[in-house]
Specification:
Blueprint: H1 2-15, H2 18-54
Amino acid sequence: MKKLHYLTLTLMAVTLNSCYMIGSVFRLGFRMGIYSVFIIIGILIWVINKRQSKK
């Protein structure tokens, strides 16, 4: 499995422009950060609603 990751990384490094690849990584990280925040807020709202409905 690790060989597949190394092969993919090597293929990306050879075929893609380095600036383009770095920009894609940062863009993906930014999107994942936004999605994570929305998921955490949703879970917190769900937990708060569950606690209030028990009373």
